[in-house]
Amino acid sequence: MTDQPDACTGLGFDPEELRARYRAERDRRLRPDGSAQYIEPTGDFGYYVDDPHAVEFTRQPCVDDVDAVVVGGGFGGLIAGARLRQAGLGSIRIVERGSDVGGTWYWNRYPGVRCDIESYIYLPLLEEVGYVPTEKYTCGAEIHRHAQAIAETFDLYREACLQTEVTGAEWDSERGRWTVTTDRGDRMTARYVVFACGVFGRPKLPGIPGIDGFRGHTFHTSRWDYAYTGGDQTGGMHRLADKRVAVIGTGATAIQCVPHLAADAERLYVFQRTPSVVDERGNRPTDPEWAGALRPGWHRRRRDNFLAVVAGRADADVVGDRWGDLTRHFQAELAKLDDREIDDPQRRELAREIADFRKMNDIRARVESIVDDDATARALQPWYRHDCKRPTYSDEYLPAFNRPNVTLVDTEGRGVERITANGAVSGGVEYELDCLIFATGFEIGRAHPAFSGPPIRGRGGRTLAEHFRGGIRTLHGFTSHGFPNLFCMGLSHNAVAVNFAHVLDDQAAHIGAVIAEAEKRQAPYVEPSVAAEREWTESIRRSARPNKVQAECTPGYYNNEGKPPPVRESYTGDALEFAELMRSWRAGSGLAEVLPE
Ligand code: NDP
User: Fold this and answer.
1) How many domains does the chain have?
2) Does the beta carbon of 431 lie inside 6 Å of ligand 1?
3) How would you classify the pairing of strands 38-39 and 205-206?
4) Is 388 near ligand 1, meaning CB less than 6 Å away?
5) Where does a domain end: 383, 407, 440?
6) Which residue among 143, 531, 552, 593 sits deepest, i.e. has the most Cβ atoms within 10 Å of its Cβ?
7) Contact assessment for residue 436 and residue 260, using Cβ atoms and an 8 Å cutoff
8) Residue 255: CB within 6 Å of ligand 1?
9) Cα(167)–Cα(191) distance, rounded to whole angstroms?
């Protein structure tokens, strides 16, 4: 960024000072081991991912033929199932690791769990299921019930294989079918396979020295142990009344569970490495009059409006929450520019940065206005750009630090030093604990199922991972040449948006429409031509730009712990543009690229 003194006078803050502070804060968090600092919950740590909700059972293996196998029963898989049902498929089998559908909302049942995007736009298929959530940001239990309602509405439980993990998928060219195998001995065949494995599937643990030596009780937030804590997702953890509890991590999960732990534990220590952006929430019950007046198409209109607000091209903000703030600040900065300046990319980038400083100054001021103790307030102030980490929203998290039983242990960017048999050490001080809770997030890695899932073998036995050896190759992120009738949902070569459930719905709608057309034409299979795959892949690579802002960000999973890939592998436009592109592709001659005449 070049210095632009004129633009920076009269701001009430010094951008250069803030830049220097952000750099210094990032530098003390950068670690040479990057993502390798985390350990996988396998082997001795495998118990961290045991399913506390599952009851062991046996069943006969499925050796049968279905129209479609959908791998994953989270929102992605459920919406895909629903759209395939609408496309006219009869037998649809969801295969899911959990003992029920719901994905993230099955696993994450920690106290205080809620969606952080407004429920009316986050929950999918609301009009199809005939439901309006009871709160603006509703609780995890209600979201899980909605996942179940989708499965019921679209009759997806009937053929589902739960508590089952797919171990492989192989295309049989002669029969024109996929063979899908599982860890329960299933060997089913299917015309279509959809991979919808989600992004936050596997919890991760920090590789803190001594982590395996703690003698107290311990668990990860995505496997909350209510047998130990008592209570439920609404709190009331009476068994913690005489316990010293610690939470490691201060991301979106911790922000939601800390207020409940603060209310229920005898003592709570919150070990912080990097403070989150904690913005206003303003949750409220749904107004029945408003819900009753909603007109058909409301859900799509509201969701599209939110995407347009975040992308900075909406006339009105229907949702009206803090997600739109940064864009509003940016637009206000742009309004100050003359015609020449507005066309200058450097000047626009400066306007964006000033908007960010303004927003983050508000966030830091909010901490000071809520937290009584000055040192604690200072430690809770985030010093990085707004979108370096997922922003969080809570009206209860910051006040929790005013309670006498709650201590913020600020590790000043270094993380917990050591875990001992009796507790956790930071700054040379050992904090004695009865219970240690890891709110340390999930493995993201390369989210494409070709890399993170079971082997997927296409024509000639070649795996999708082999096909991607020189980089991901797809048409629109969904399909790849040599892998007929295989569809992948996710982030690669596709749109990304903060309301990811919306993106998943658009993806499922596209897959459903392509399959419906294939069925109508009685096409033997759907597969992109070599040329179509090459063209899309090249267009993604051409438009990909090194993410300069992320490269300068404090480390986290957004930037691969400070080592962002040189270029993004996602579509560079916004999700509304991508959905429009898919619509016109389907309406024009695009389908000829995947469906033989
Ligand atoms: P995150 O990855 O966001 O946070 C992990 C936390 O653990 C960070 O604060 C990290 O610090 C900290 N940490 C890691 N290692 C150490 C260590 N050695 N010592 C101290 N602290 C450490 O995980 P979450 O589970 O909070 O959230 C994951 C994602 O899930 C969110 O970003 C969000 O997208 C989603 N989510 C969505 C919700 C919703 O409402 N829809 C609710 C909850 C989560 P540091 O920042 O320094 O790395």
Assistant:
1) 2
2) no
3) antiparallel
4) no
5) 440
6) 143
7) no
8) no
9) 18
Is the shortest distance between the CB of 196 and ligand 1 below 6 Å? no
**Domain extent for 221:** 1-30+210-282+321-440
In this structure, what token pair is assigned to residue 274? 């990097």
- Residue 251 CA to ligand 1 center (angstroms) comes to 3
Same domain, 588 and 495: yes
Output the CA 252–ligand 1 centroid distance in Å. Answer: 6
Please report which confidence band the pLDDT of residue 446 belongs to, taking 50, 70 and 90 as the band edges. low
Residues 432 and 462 grouped into a single domain: no
What is the C-alpha to C-alpha distance for residues 377 and 364, in angstroms, rounded to an integer? 9
- Is the CB of 252 within 6 Å of ligand 1? yes
* pLDDT tens by residue, 63-116: 999 999 999 999 999 999 999 999 999 999 999 999 999 999 999 999 999 999
Is 0.90 topped by the overall pTM?
Answer: yes
Q: Find where tokens 């507790």 sit.
A: 423
CB–CB of 425/246 below 8 Å?
no
Cα 242 to averaged position of ligand 1 atoms, centre (Å): 27
The pLDDT tens digits for 163-201 are 999 999 999 999 999 999 999 999 999 999 999 998 777
Q: What is the CATH number of the domain that holds 274?
A: 3.50.50.60
489 and 350 in a common domain: no
339 and 484: one domain? Answer: no
Q: Are residues 420 and 326 both part of a single domain?
A: yes
Whether the CB of 251 sits within 6 Å of ligand 1: yes
228 and 98 in a common domain? no
Alpha-carbon distance of 103 to 117, in angstroms, equals: 17
